[in-house]
Amino acid sequence: MPIRLRLLSFIIALFSSVILFISPITNAASSYEINVGVSETLDRFRTEISGGSQFLKQAKAVLVFPTVIKAGFGIGGEYGEGALQVAGKTVSYYSTVAASIGFQLGAQSKSVVLVFMTDAALKNFQSSEGWKAGVDGSVALIEWGVGEDINTIDIEDPIIGFVFSNKGLMYNLTLEGSKFTQIVK
């Protein structure tokens, strides 16, 4: 393949990725839309995860992103908006952004739920200007077997992450490199 054709293909791929990445940002949700999505996502969490309601009662706070869109064509990115809830009430809104390079083509949507189990982890998160998973704090993604109750798992991590697709809870994913930043709604 000639160099000009490869360069043109790369520029088209880069442009497409940027357009797909920026599109959700330009269609930012209102606080009402985010709150409705958070409520629906938490209802789904309680329904799909055995013991989910009891588990959430132990949490100091929950950060919920109802819809995180990931798109890419060689270079990819993801974006979503959500809310931080303490004692069942929204206290602030956040965006999540991540970028990636490598073999990727297409788009997907997922929901992300981060559960803060300690006051120290919550305080560290809230005091940051832009909290990055894996740098400013680690997020443990939990896996368990079918029929197992989450309350029977010995969880000692300060921040627990759950990722849902349209098909249900997703396994073997990472939130490393995702950046969470407070936004005004």
Gross morphology is globular
This entry's quaternary arrangement is: single chain
Main β-sheet description: 7 strands, mixed
| Count of domain modules | 1
Strand content: 35-45%
- Kindly state the percentage of residues in helix: 25-40%
Compute the gyration radius: what is it?
18 Å
How many H/I helices? 4
Secondary-structure element order, N to C: HHHEEHEEEEE
Task: Describe the protein in words.
With 185 residues, the chain is of the alpha+beta class. It has one domain (3-183). It is built from 4 helices and 7 strands, in the order αααββαβββββ. Strands 1, 2, 3, 4, 5, 6 and 7 form a 7-stranded mixed beta sheet that branches. A hairpin with a 2-residue loop joins strand 1 and strand 2. The protein is globular. The chain starts with a helix and ends with a strand.
Q: Which short descriptors sum up this protein?
A:
185 residues, alpha+beta, 7-stranded mixed beta sheet, 39% strand, globular
Short characterization:
This protein has 185 residues and is of the alpha+beta class. The chain is built from four helices and seven strands, in the order H-H-H-E-E-H-E-E-E-E-E. The protein is globular, with a radius of gyration of 18 Å.
Secondary structure blueprint with pairings:
Layout: H1 3-26, H2 31-48, H3 52-58, E1 61-86, E2 89-116, H4 119-127, E3 131-132, E4 140-141, E5 159-165, E6 168-169, E7 179-183
